Amino acid sequence: MNNSxxxxxxxxxxxxxxxxxxxxxxxFTLSEKELNQIILAVDEITAxxxxxxxxxxxxxxxxxxxxxxxxxxxxxxxxxxxxFKPEKYREPNIADIIREGxxxxxxxxxxxxxxxxxxxxxxxxxxICRLYKKVNQLV
Length: 139
Prior knowledge:
Heat Shock Protein 90, alpha+beta, 4 helices
């Protein structure tokens, strides 16, 4: 089974990524909740890379590779866009966002709640985000 995919930085490719994750995970015994949470987290990071890091420049790409060992999955997303500065990230106050009628801004906070571990590595040529998820049962 192919464990990686490379897409152009276009939001229309988010469905391609969601389908790829779904198909990759289909042989494993995951609850519907686990599966949906994982897809949501990977989708959110992919969207952030497409929109914020790569500015939807189709000349830039996002790569997703999936690995699993024992009961843990690793989703590694990389791009060649503007570097994310995790040290400058401050988790937003959801009450403020709701009160102000804002859209967005909760993605990374949501991903951190879903996944067991989230790592960001930045370098001159882009970003790498590693998402780790331990699941209850793998077959």
